[in-house]
## 1
Amino acid sequence: MGNADFQPPQQYGRVEVPPPKPFFKSLAVSVKETLFPDDPFRQFKDQPFSKKCVLGLQYFVPILEWAPRYTFEFFKADLVAGITIASLAVPQGISYARLASLPPIIGLYSSFVPPLIYALLGSSKDLAVGTIAVPSLLISAMMGKEVHPAENPKLYVQLVLTATFFAGVFQASLGLLRLGFIVDFLSHATIVGFMGGAATVVCLQQLKGILGLVHFTHETDVISVMRSIFTQVHQWRWESGVLGCCFLLYLFTTKYFSKKKPVFFWINAMAPLTSVILGSVLVYVTHAENHGVEVIGHLKKGLNPPSLSELAFGSPYLMLALKTGVITGVIALAEGVAVGRSFASFKNYQIDGNKEMIAFGMMNIAGSCTSCYLTSGPFSRSAVNFNAGCKTAVSNIVMAAAVMITLLFLTPLFHYTPLVVLSAIIIAAMIGLIDYEAAIHLSKIDKFDFAVCISAYIGVVFGSVEIGLVIAVAISLLRVILFIARPRTTLLGNIPNSMAYRSIDQYPAAINVPGILILRIEAPVYFANASYLRERITRWIDEEEDKLKSSTDVELQYVILDLSAVGTIDTSGVSMIEEVKKNMDRRCLQLVLANPGSEVMKKLDKSDLIEKIGKEWIFLTVAEAACACNYMLHSYKQKGKITENNSSDQMV
Amino acid sequence: MGNADFQPPQQYGRVEVPPPKPFFKSLAVSVKETLFPDDPFRQFKDQPFSKKCVLGLQYFVPILEWAPRYTFEFFKADLVAGITIASLAVPQGISYARLASLPPIIGLYSSFVPPLIYALLGSSKDLAVGTIAVPSLLISAMMGKEVHPAENPKLYVQLVLTATFFAGVFQASLGLLRLGFIVDFLSHATIVGFMGGAATVVCLQQLKGILGLVHFTHETDVISVMRSIFTQVHQWRWESGVLGCCFLLYLFTTKYFSKKKPVFFWINAMAPLTSVILGSVLVYVTHAENHGVEVIGHLKKGLNPPSLSELAFGSPYLMLALKTGVITGVIALAEGVAVGRSFASFKNYQIDGNKEMIAFGMMNIAGSCTSCYLTSGPFSRSAVNFNAGCKTAVSNIVMAAAVMITLLFLTPLFHYTPLVVLSAIIIAAMIGLIDYEAAIHLSKIDKFDFAVCISAYIGVVFGSVEIGLVIAVAISLLRVILFIARPRTTLLGNIPNSMAYRSIDQYPAAINVPGILILRIEAPVYFANASYLRERITRWIDEEEDKLKSSTDVELQYVILDLSAVGTIDTSGVSMIEEVKKNMDRRCLQLVLANPGSEVMKKLDKSDLIEKIGKEWIFLTVAEAACACNYMLHSYKQKGKITENNSSDQMV
């Protein structure tokens, strides 16, 4: 113990009840903290009305904010970046559309309108808009079960567009209602596992294209796919296989090379387009399309046709479209927001998640009316954009212009593009999503997070994308529930030669004081953990009494609860403390509180518990509480045995 | 600041990384904390094998533990209590069965078998077993929608028995899997509101009986009920009304009297039985059954018939039975466990929630095979049991014996019991459940809890019991989510004349140190709040810089994060700290950590973040961190402006 062991108790600091706040003021504060933690209104403060209007418009349409400051220097950079990502957008668009069992042209359409909308509304400078692989696969998995894309292509496309519309509405309303934090409930570990699993599944699906198989399983799990492949060994087409392996090799080589020398990132970025060109020329020259190499075939020329009338609100499959839209919308959002945030953090600017959600939502609503399916900010394309040195969202406009030119004039060039090249492009992009390094990192730092990650992965790979998603969300929720329902309580001891009392687990040298039990509750207390804490505290006391009984003749007399970490408390928590107090009174123990925070003091005060515990038993620090208890213990010893009930009278 | 302002930094206490624990040991500890927080195996430790077997058997069948110590004194007390609660059980059983739209005799059956099972397996000494009002109403509301109890009585009874079976299985498995904490997620505020609303609804339903109406709405909301009553004013039967009002007056008077003089609690306890006797005699004498006063009619003599073959597992309504069983099972469990716990806490003994759940589950499984419907530990009956001085669960056996005698010999006596008396008994019991005092208490202590309570109440009263339940659970979950997603962060300042740094909200006198921002994170950090905290910390820094810019010429140089309250952290939390560190580096600010706990230190260490932050910037207390920063600030001033990057070198 420190040198203040026998200091008379009167000199201790007083724990204050926070000054009362008017109800509506504190309500306003908590609403603001809940819905506007980033305080978007700060810039509006103390501004004249006209300025406020301009700022408000700029808030919702960020291009108005940065366009006036746009320079030619910026444009040069954005032009290069835009062309680079366009060269990626065209083959990826076609590939992912095939993944979603949609006509390839819809993939191209989806790289034209949505980037333009995002350039107007989005606040990220680095995000490149486009279709994304995992939601594409999910669309085909969820929709394809009910409506077969080959048997009923028109209805299938209509439903996908409707799902996109719902996804957009859902995303925009999450943003408008400022409920963006719902996305945060998908933990990083969950996303790593889920994305890795989905990427594995997508790669497995591409074996169909690589091996040139005609019949293939509709299931996505690894066992069905493997069975489907190995029961058809005699159907494998070597032409297709050789072509696929060559292009895969080419893509991986460029990737490896670009990783080694980051200046040549464009080699990697251009690789998909060069593969497509090479593959098409090869097929055109050798007429391989007649020898088992499937090609894209005819692509319609022209820009996106309007599709508002295609939205199938009267369809009996409306609920399916709604479900698909909401689920794929959330996943697309999670990826897009995460990508936006990470690049913003590289370049040190802020992104408002809720505003991004509105931008994504509007982009998908507009997309669904112009023959586009679900888009977001894919990681691969955004990374290329960033590496290519983009400065603003103008790179998206440049990309859209390039795609427009493709749509108007160049679609016939894709007639001979072999599907196997598209499969190779997808595999090359997806392999990067299997983030085994992140999984290893998780396993090093937090075993539970690793278990979450692996379960999500296994669920996707051995079950289905939906099962994996359900497992991932369920485990994430379970984790949250466990975090809440089972807060840690630790035993504190005095660190030698200091006044600090710290957990004995962490500081094995810390000494506990005989006759005094010092416990620390390490989390806010509320209904979900109040009864656990009550039981756990009782167990601590039981164990301490057992220990003292067997070793020394000192009796346990004081229990100090360190409430420093109890940031908030609700009525159930207050009742818990009241019950602990009663329980201790029955056992002739004195309950002592150390460092209760403002919320705790406010609620203890309102429920008259401060009186019941006794003001003199509430201390500002654990050290003071321990000092006072020690002082009482020693004065007992000197004065002989006095009954417990007098102790509080003496104190006053 | 304290007097140690310019102490050289080398003398500060060192924050330790906790000693590494083997993975399986720490897993075992966390599994134990999660599933066995009450440590039921403690008594098994260091015992010979035979003793362990006996203890194990006693653990699962508690009667084996206390029966050997049972004395004649105990029996006398239990006999009195048992007879008292039997006098309540018979009329309540009949009334609640009617509430569940079941034949009255099933209510009597339910007070015979389940109490016997509970006496064997239950660990509460005060709980009296019986049917409960709210789940009874819920059964009729949920089942009655699909299968009309009057049109298809046999199927209805079968489904109710099946639902009881599922409720029992669900309860027992919650207990066996030690998932009892799920019940804790129904907060006290939710339960107060929901129970109050349900009691109101039950009372309103009784107006049918009191007014002698034949046709009545099937809805339970107040508007439908009122419309149904006031559109049938000419159908009101004054005989029934007068009788009902008289009995209500009688019941309330006895209740009031017993409250005033607790020794006469038995007057209140006997009142329902005396009402039934009085009412039956009155009807028999006046032949009021021919003048608009409905009576129970014929009740079959004899004990519970077996009903295993009645369980309708093949029925098309199986899912309905399952749903009803699970929902009513949870509510029954919540009431039973809460009742058991509160009386245990009065008499200072422990109750194991999970073991209680197994007992409830077994009791309902056995009940469903012997023509009983859902039972639990109703508050009213248990309170009477407690007041009557029961000592052990033998009072339940006595009650069962009394009910058995009733079933065997006395059922004809209930032929003339008027239904209006049963309605009066239900109303008198239910009024007590409308706990307006608890609601007032909630509104005083925690406005949000009050809002939860009122929403649940309004949902039940103006919507339906199910809507109310959904609202209650949804708001409880929302509350949990908000608690997690939006942890508090507070600004700390130095309390004058002490070394303590506390929240400026709570201690308005606390002074903050210019150039140093001290923030405290008041909750564990994990994926659900990591991105909020990152944004919030950035906002604190922005605001502090704005404030400093406008007032003084001091620049913000140090940000101290007080991590005392961060009990646990996951990988997302660690990434958050890493990002905050990067962000501060970019702004030329120094991140300083104060008092990270064992979990935090362990994970910072494993992710090499300690190196990145610098060991010398992690302090044992906020006071030491502030001291060191202040020291650096002042040595700057003396030495003139030095670039920020050197600061950490100087420190070492």
Note: Strands of chain B lie at 489-494, 501-503, 516-521, 558-562, 590-594, 618-619.
## 2
Amino acid sequence: MTTTVVSVVTSRSQYARVKTALQALTEDDRVDFYLIVSGGALVHRFGDLSDIISEAGMEIDKKIHTLLEAGEPVAQAKTTGMGLVEYATAFEELDPDMMLTSGDRHETIASSLAASYLNIPVVHLEGGEITGSIDDKVRHATTKMADYHFVSTKRSKEIVSQLGEPADRIYRTGCPSIELAEQVVQEERTEYDPQTEYGGVGDTVDVSQDYIVIQYHPLPTEYKSNYDKTQELITAYEQLDIQAFWFWPNMDAGTDQVSKAIREYREQQDADGVRFFISLDPHDYLTLVKNAACMLGNSSVGIRECSYFGTPAVNIGERQQSREQGPNVLDVDCDADKIAEGVRSQLQHGSYPQSMIYGNGNAAQKITDTIVELDPELKPPMTPDLVGYQEKIDQ
Amino acid sequence: MTTTVVSVVTSRSQYARVKTALQALTEDDRVDFYLIVSGGALVHRFGDLSDIISEAGMEIDKKIHTLLEAGEPVAQAKTTGMGLVEYATAFEELDPDMMLTSGDRHETIASSLAASYLNIPVVHLEGGEITGSIDDKVRHATTKMADYHFVSTKRSKEIVSQLGEPADRIYRTGCPSIELAEQVVQEERTEYDPQTEYGGVGDTVDVSQDYIVIQYHPLPTEYKSNYDKTQELITAYEQLDIQAFWFWPNMDAGTDQVSKAIREYREQQDADGVRFFISLDPHDYLTLVKNAACMLGNSSVGIRECSYFGTPAVNIGERQQSREQGPNVLDVDCDADKIAEGVRSQLQHGSYPQSMIYGNGNAAQKITDTIVELDPELKPPMTPDLVGYQEKIDQ
Amino acid sequence: MTTTVVSVVTSRSQYARVKTALQALTEDDRVDFYLIVSGGALVHRFGDLSDIISEAGMEIDKKIHTLLEAGEPVAQAKTTGMGLVEYATAFEELDPDMMLTSGDRHETIASSLAASYLNIPVVHLEGGEITGSIDDKVRHATTKMADYHFVSTKRSKEIVSQLGEPADRIYRTGCPSIELAEQVVQEERTEYDPQTEYGGVGDTVDVSQDYIVIQYHPLPTEYKSNYDKTQELITAYEQLDIQAFWFWPNMDAGTDQVSKAIREYREQQDADGVRFFISLDPHDYLTLVKNAACMLGNSSVGIRECSYFGTPAVNIGERQQSREQGPNVLDVDCDADKIAEGVRSQLQHGSYPQSMIYGNGNAAQKITDTIVELDPELKPPMTPDLVGYQEKIDQ
Amino acid sequence: MTTTVVSVVTSRSQYARVKTALQALTEDDRVDFYLIVSGGALVHRFGDLSDIISEAGMEIDKKIHTLLEAGEPVAQAKTTGMGLVEYATAFEELDPDMMLTSGDRHETIASSLAASYLNIPVVHLEGGEITGSIDDKVRHATTKMADYHFVSTKRSKEIVSQLGEPADRIYRTGCPSIELAEQVVQEERTEYDPQTEYGGVGDTVDVSQDYIVIQYHPLPTEYKSNYDKTQELITAYEQLDIQAFWFWPNMDAGTDQVSKAIREYREQQDADGVRFFISLDPHDYLTLVKNAACMLGNSSVGIRECSYFGTPAVNIGERQQSREQGPNVLDVDCDADKIAEGVRSQLQHGSYPQSMIYGNGNAAQKITDTIVELDPELKPPMTPDLVGYQEKIDQ
């Protein structure tokens, strides 16, 4: 008896985080695994993942285009609506025993809702994390719809429980991205140059010298000031004297503002010392980050994977403000001087010791084993005692 | 300075519950109120509300058809997806200060998501209620996306808080449906016959004699057995010797099974003593219920409005199992004998004293006043302490 | 080398017309045939075809729910839009050599457009027919998008050519529905009673005596008067003294008005002598029609299949006004007296000789053979000479 | 009594072509004009038209985002489907007397279908034109759905008639784009430099010297070779010794291939002498074209507006192969040498005399006057004689 599992990949960052789990599910004989690729993961501008996924040995069962030209909140809402419409058709056809989803992005809720309507149990990875950004709304809403929770940290486990989820449905598997990080550590590629294989545009970076990795995403709730914020970051970088690999932002609302600032920087100010990429294979990306002198921006990678690598990270602004951090992270406001000062301080400090706060590198196997052992069914409705309600009813 | 509010009505039951609040918002000079009618509320089979709403003095600003032919979960998912796509367009055009939504049905989450993506603060009525049905998943997920909570009961207020919502964003306004109930009480229409005005089909009920009101909705998670369950209810009714007004079910998954059983009962077994209706104006419906000897089925009206009327209610099965109840409710399993016995026992008991568990009848004004006084903004991201997390981070 | 063909079935009437072709394609080893069932063909109210298709030996490859609660033009437009969105996904996944579509209904254009965008050659059955109804707009628009035309009649072939389509892309295959008619003729079931197998509601018809078959569809362009028109038909029937099988209308805009009139007739006027059905298997339906004393209404069956059977037909109003007719058809205005008079006259005349105007009963094989022999490719752009344009360009 | 007209603008090229008509409708007191902006016209990458339209004195009544991330046929199909869904809602709300659409692009058919379903008469501009590209499929299909035809040329008028449209519903108004061209001619801006106002990227062009304008769009049916074709064009340009303004392609399937080739040319080969733009205001764009030494590519502007200006044009490949041409056009295959030779020959020839093949510059007023005088109603169904069918029916 095999267990049938379906999962939807909608962006490169989400893919990077769950890749090892998807591979483990693909390879395990006890599991029939269906992979749907959708949204930004099919779009060149944000890094079409089709080839990358195939090269990683996974078959793509369905491609479902849903991404409206983004950069505006209304387009994100519609992308989610399109996803809901079409994932429903796909899930009904595939008729899986469970649907595995991850994280906090808006596409997440489309697959969770579609599965919920179809009475397919939802397994949610990375619930209970608190970053302090608007994405958390979606994450916690997904927790309330999910039937099983595979969490990364001790804090997350406790928070999911406090949100009224039954304890016997919460598993601490660790984050599958840490498993990928562990693979990267074991390979010991201490000097890796992505420019040969991936191209990119801009100056050539000498990877035998110190470099930093920059990844700055828009903040959807304040999307009109994303242009200004990106310029603070550019001004900060101009004050520093170090090479950089700079990655284009994800497709959240505001992405056009961030991209515009970067594009002007490249075209009108030369962007000395910077190499720009759309995306790398997650494995290569993490190798680049592991070897970096510092990670700069507001990506969760600075906090999550870098804690495992010990790579110093400068975390800008509010996007990750409440996320659990290891010792490697320095938080700064989105101000050019403070950003530059933060990077200088981290470069001086150098590498940090490894932290296992997000897992110890065997999440994929844990996830697969747990899935196989589950006899998946919808969770019972929440009862008052699950959120600690005990008083007598007043009348 | 007026406050601009938008709300979406998608079904007759939802409309009945919020009608007084919508009217108060329409009439209040401090508020610009936009009403969108959508989904099942535009469909004849489930009671097209267009005329009813106009007659109640409210203008319909937009009609948005979203309802796929229902009776199957996949159609519900798609209806929600269509709603998300089109509400996003509508909300962007109307550009309101806040979006008011209510309850727990699947359409709710489409408007909540659309507003969330567009950074429009969401006000959620009736959060924190626990019924024990699958609808609660959607209700609690909506709570995690909403920015303000206007709850009905003390228990609900505490539960919303336990789910990690800031205390200063939770208002106990009571349920606007109780205000409608209070209006009905004040009118003192002790004998009301809907057959003249609305027609209906089946036998003629003599409203000067005892009658019961039956309303039985499908259970989406087990939608294949809804036919059998409805037959239990029919068998139970056949054992009783009392007239009945029977209302067709809502459009949840499984509605075709319930309808089929009722239709066969009508067409092949005569359904002696029963008058069938699709829907009445909420006001007339509640008058009918207030005067009834007993309310039978699994509608929340038996628990909510009937507690205020003191009308005895027999509540079948799990759909409302964890909902807060006043003394007027008798819970029974979905078994013909037990249902019949329950009705007999309630008929013998007769009317109960009024309970104010769901509010004291002034919710609409409280809601309007609170909205006017709000300076609406998105809630801050949830922090760990809001769900009572206090331990130090482990590493 | 097999040819891969996909087709979408969206209603019972469309299915009835192409059934033999779909079966021939399913059974032919030279063809990989994919069948998508969608729209009204999945909805109970209009006759869910899933079981009927499976029993006919065909596998359903995809079910795609698209039907919005109909009865309003806006819902039809949205149903078509939903179809376009999802058929595009399905066609991309199946990657067929061609897409086979039929007829004139609005769903047709969704599949034709989806295929056109994806550069999949479109084969259109039943192009060039002129009925005189608004459906023709869609039919002729589809002709302009189709790459191959499999037509039924000589007139159709000439009209498709006049519309600027290349002669070598127009094949006169005959209509596959006539093949089904031929099968029915060969079976010689001269007395067939659908009431045992299908139930239905209303009076019992004695099939050893004369009966008529009534099928009246709404006219979308004037959908507000469909209620009145249906009442003319009812009044006409009341003047006659013959039993009838009456079929509910299709899901075109206006269906609610037609249904309402029929429902009231049934519930308030008893409808003496009438048995009502939602739908039968096409085979059984045609047997019933073949044995009927007269076919009454505005269905194309009265003109198309009845010409082959020689069953007298009374064709009401404009819906089929320009369709090619055999000698068996009497056209009448939608007026109660004229309808009744027409039926009386046809009953007196009795059966007509067989006409082969719509084909000689081997269309399915011709269609399949033609498909196998095609090396399908997109048609070249239309040139001025194809529509007979010869003058010199003026400047 | 005013006439209510709605129109949907979905791309910059379509806007350019109808701008004067939209302005005339806006300004005319006899018309209530509603403008919907949608699709590519709302997307930065293809030139967001919101500001441009507002600056031209027109109010945007609705913005409807529909554009899926393009470059793939499946995304175009879905964009059309989304449009159909949402235009239906918008048209029902606005309830216009007619819907005005133009041209041949895929978005056209979404608005035509939505209006057809809602029984709103469709007025189609630019029907009957034959370009020889796949776009014609959509144009001729739209002709078969449209109720009125406002055509540009004598040939178009005859072709629309041959396609079976009633002669009294075909008006030769001329193309509104020629009116814009006439305005540009009258202004006598013989030296216009867009670089000051619009920026653009690449080298600076000296507009006091000869320059050419390049605009090359993808061919959807062969979208995989668009990259190679664009490289032929680049190689051709490299052989020439003249400055160029190069405009990015439209959003048709294949746009990513064209863009990729251009981007590589810019980033890796320097693109000496070329200034790249996304888009200009139509007025400014035509001024630039009028002053150009040659127009190069496959845009209809080279044939349509340039015939009126007398600007020499080199038309590459099949995209416009059957379009009516004035004497200013030289057709060449998509081969680097032939393109270069064509441009050299046109540069040597210099300016051509004005041709009025596409109208004489007063189309906008003619269109508006015709609309006001119409008493718009749906066209009658096509009858056999309209396509010249006269034979007796064979049986």
Note: Chain D is about 40% helix and 15% strand.
